[in-house]
Design brief:
alpha/beta, 2 domains, Aspartate Aminotransferase, domain 1, seven-stranded mixed sheet
Length: 437
């Protein structure tokens, strides 16, 4: 495709939004059904979405909440993590991977990414882990699952510094892995799904995600660790002021009375949101397959250019499976990795931030909206204020300086992708001709 794209005349102007929600009549009908039901807050549809998500992810249990950020905070609180504890996460991520650490009063510790990688440098963890380290939050950026084998090996090697503070931490038997799987719903690695790999996993259902409930998220945990009912009840208490009965439970005859177990928060999901999710989940396998096809088309279109793209679909032994048509194979093959195809991350080695920013502006002039994922946390005011210095995270800075994220969503047509690639090539050539490097 790349050769033919270079020879084609520039197509007529299109407007390519970055990440609009994919909403069909099916979602609209499900929401209308909820509105007509008379039950719009947390209720039967939320509980049904939790049940279906547990089946889809292979998790032992799923709790739906108002956001992935709320889910991550609830996970840390459920593990008893708070003041005096340390939690490690990546310097190359969005603030929502780290802010819950601050919310619970623990100390965030940032790890640099490995050279030329979006994943944290697992080899660096040994020097970051202390007896106060209670959890690590790896980030499945763009929907690509981290190397959990390497991560767990690093944590096992640091077992002598693991000091459990409560029964749940002791049951895990090492520093807890609480995955930021915000992007990763539907991703698999070595035959396991996001939701059953890490000890606990958070998902985001924000409007720009592959799977959306407008706002919302979920917390999942793997089987065999905890008393599922007890942990689920605790998460629900956190999500509703510590109240021992939710609105659905109080509708039963004579069941008005309740207690407040502790001063909790308010971060429950509503049935209106869950209705969106139920319709989305029915369509989701097809949406994942479409994302896979779009990624392959982008990769073909960008072939021959001096750029690198994230490998969303591959044999983790080293082989490329980007163009395998049988999507089921990625789940059944214990050697393979299949991301959710959430973001089209493109790096431009050797190019400057000035080049990247000028490219974004030129693409916008042609109607192509792009983004950058992400500005490393130590570059942000909040985290500089916590004492982090970007000079201590050179690999994260290098990843950021020349990264651009192209539109990737299921409302794109093949012709839209071809247009984005054509505009990308044109803008690149124009900038180089002007001497922008």
């Amino acid at each position: 495709m790349s050769g033919t794209l270079e020879k084609r005349a520039m197509p007529g102007r299109r407007e390519i939004p970055f990440s609009p929600p994919d909403i069909t009549q099916e979602e609209i009908d499900e929401v209308v059904d909820t509105l007509k039901s008379g039950w719009i807050t947390t209720g039967p549809k939320t509980k049904e979405l939790e049940r279906q998500l547990a089946g889809f992810t292979g998790a032992s249990r799923v709790a739906c909440l108002a956001s992935a950020t709320a889910a991550l905070e609830c996970a840390l609180r459920a593990l008893g993590i708070g003041p005096g504890d340390e939690v490690i996460t990546s310097a190359y991520t969005y603030t929502a991977s780290c802010s819950p650490i601050c919310h619970v009063g623990a100390t965030p510790v940032l790890a640099d990414v490995a050279p030329n990688s979006f994943e944290m440098d697992y080899a660096s963890l040994d020097e970051l882990i202390t007896p106060r380290t209670r959890a690590i939050i790896p980030v499945d950026i763009a929907g690509r699952p981290c190397d959990y084998d390497a991560l767990e090996s690093a944590l096992v090697a640091a077992h002598d510094r693991f000091k459990p503070a409560n029964d749940r931490q002791a049951v895990i038997g090492r520093i807890a892995i609480v995955a930021d799987g915000a992007h990763a719903l539907g991703a698999t690695r070595r035959g396991k799904r996001a939701g059953e790999i890490a000890d606990l996993t958070t998902f985001s259902f924000h409007a720009v995600k592959n799977f959306t409930t407008a706002e919302g998220g979920a917390l999942a945990w793997r089987a065999g660790l905890f008393d599922d009912d007890a942990l689920y009840r605790e998460i629900m208490l956190m999500a509703l002021h510590g109240q021992t009965k939710d609105a659905l439970a109080k509708t039963k005859a004579g069941a008005w009375e309740y207690d407040i177990a502790f001063p909790g928060w308010k971060c429950n999901m509503t049935d209106i949101q869950a209705a969106l999710g139920l319709a989305q989940l029915r369509r989701y396998p097809g949406m994942l397959a479409r994302r896979r096809a779009l990624v392959a088309r982008y990769e073909d279109g960008l072939a021959g250019m001096p750029v690198t793209t994230m490998r969303h679909y591959e044999d983790v032994q080293g082989g490329d499976i980007a163009h395998v048509d049988d999507d089921v194979a990625s789940r059944s093959d214990a050697r393979s990795l299949s991301s959710s195809g959430h973001l089209m991350l493109v790096r431009m080695p050797g190019k400057s931030q000035a080049f990247r920013n000028a490219l974004i502006e030129r693409l916008a002039e042609d109607g192509v909206m792009t983004n950058v994922h992400y500005k490393p946390l130590p570059l942000l005011t909040a985290y500089r204020g916590l004492g982090f210095d970007i000079t201590n995270f050179p690999n994260a800075l290098a990843q950021f300086e020349n990264e651009i994220t192209l539109p990737l969503h299921t409302k794109l047509s093949d012709e839209d992708v071809d247009y984005v690639v054509a505009c990308f090539r044109k803008a690149w050539a124009q900038l180089e001709a002007k001497g922008v490097r």
